[in-house]
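Because showing beats explaining, we think one record worth quoting, sequence and backbone structure tokens together, and here it is:
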Amino acid sequence: MQICMKVLIDNEISANIAAAKVMRITIYIYAFIYLLDVLGIFVVPLKAMTVTFLICAALLITPTILIKFSMQEKKWLKYVIVLLSVAFISVSAAVLSYHVKTVYIYPIAIASLYFSGSLNLFATISTIICISIGQFVSFFLTYVTDENIHNFKKLCLFHILPNALTVFAVAMIFNMLSKRTAKILTNLSETYQKARENDALRQEKMIAENANKAKSDFLANMSHEIRTPINAIIGMNEMVLRESEKQTVLEYASNIQAASNTLLSTVNDILDFSKIESGKMEIIVSEYNLGKVLNDVITMIEVKAKQKNLTFSVHVDENIPEKLIGDEIRIKQVLINLLNNAVKYTPNGFIELEIKGSTDANSDTVNLEMAVKDSGIGIQKENLAAMFEGFQRFDIIKNRHIEGSGLGLAITHKIITMMQGRIDVDSVYGEGSVFTIYVSQKIAGNERIGNFESKYRKTYASKSKYSASFTAPEAEILVVDDNSMNITVITNLLKNTLVKLTTCMSGYEALEIMETKKFDIVLLDHMMPEMDGIQTLHCVMQIPDHLNADTPFIALTANAIAGVKNMYLSEGFTDYISKPVDAVALEEMLAKYIPKEKLITDGNQTSKAAEAAESPEKASAEKQPEDEINTDESLIDRETGIANCGNMEKLYNKILKMFCTMYEEKHSELNRNFEQQDWQNYIINIHSLKSNAYNIGCAKLGDLCLKLELSSKNVAADKNKEEEIAFIENNHSDAMKLFTAVKEYIESN
């Protein structure tokens, strides 16, 4: 069976090799018969048996010799093999006995190995001819008498004809069996081939899944590190916009804001496209304000349009409901993608955003029609079909000066499809394009958007000077973070809101505080030693009638990967906010969950906040000599550190002191974790030191801690454990020496 399968799967060469092997085995069988004759068991004359054996052995070994001389690929070899097998049975029958009929099927059996009807016929005819000739010769050599000459007719009728019919019948049986066997083996071969292909596909799928998992793991580990410097630029630039009085500085800051948002958008596009590829793109449904979404989008795009002297107009249907239910972030994202493309591909002329809405009778949904029109370069008809594929750039030579990843439209199309909507494109090459999105959103309230243009202008004009978006002097907020510098930053970012802050640095301490005090919101860091944020929340949830059972818990996290929000919601958190904490996002999050009766959002709050908070200039003028700490510029970037502290130099000097204060404890903990190979706590402590180092502007220490953190995470996850432990062992002492050096630099300056 295996030989036949190999012949079918491979080729005729395999059949030649198989036939030669069968003929070699026949020699061994013939040798055994010869031995039995020598021992007297058979009665064939020894001389005749010896001659016959030598002749037959020579015939049977010939195919093997031909194959040894690389003749296996010759087309004629199969016919030679069949003729040699015919000669073998002819010699055997003629010399030994013409009554030996069982060996007549031998050539036919050999021919059957090739699964060829023509070769079977050739073997049948050759066998009949040869055994007939052999019997004639044997008859005349054995019985040369006058009496036997008269029995020639008897020889033909009773010997040659029956033998020929027997051979023919056997050949037909073999031919039929050969066809059926070939059919069965062909099916088996196809099944085997499919199995091999399926196995190959499974292997390829496994490789692809592993590669995709490796990419997802990389993004999970690195997304925070990619976004952190961008968020720092955006956040610190926001402090400049809030605090600066100089018009030129505000203009520079506005340009930085636009460029930073563009960079962040590009990074987010790359991360989002990765989510799409891995099937982890998600639509998060919540209530949102359409007017605010449009405000944010237009504010960003208007700056870019002005830079190119483009006319940017907005038309919004006044009857559209203002509060809707859907994915606010994704709606904003698709509008920004389309408008960004319009700006990029419109050298002069106009850009127009038109928002329409219609509602069906007795329906709680609004059908939005959002169109982006431009007078740009347009799209050629042959390129329209590929518009929504990833990494597509058309007219590359002509448009080589246009920046972008080529992912925006692919992401937009995927998002709209996931929302059960559609996107159409109508374009005339050289004249412009119209992209129209059709998507339905649930209605959350009866209030209409009204005259959007006047609302937008009023909102935009009010952004020239920062003021807290609300004040809440009666609101009680608990901030839980094991990193004292993070607590200091959050405390100062919320200073203008006048909220009452309580802070602590562990889950255990938070539980003690919450036993006796009711809070309006708890900001809870996820990654803390001993008891992390999730465990802390679960402890609260497990206590019946806990004082803070209905308090909104908001996770503080550095994760920026797909599914993180669902993960926190499933664990019991009300919401989450990414770190480094964005000031505006933090205020919006608090305003969302602070009880409405405690929020003050009228015009008087600005003066209250201004009276309660010092500006950086005032803080700098009033600071005491002991607050001033100079640091070595080669080790610490002071400007970066100040920017990370909301552009408040006094706060930065305070954080430098805190860095030195926590040195002894953190240094000892890290060494203890390292010596005991307590990788879980090592991860937490090295993560904390990394955050502190970046906050004070010491990128060298922060980068080394980041590498140690990633390696320790791999050790904890049992990935490349030996290599990662070796890396930690080689670099831990360097990190500790650098930690000490930074502390000494701060103290000595």
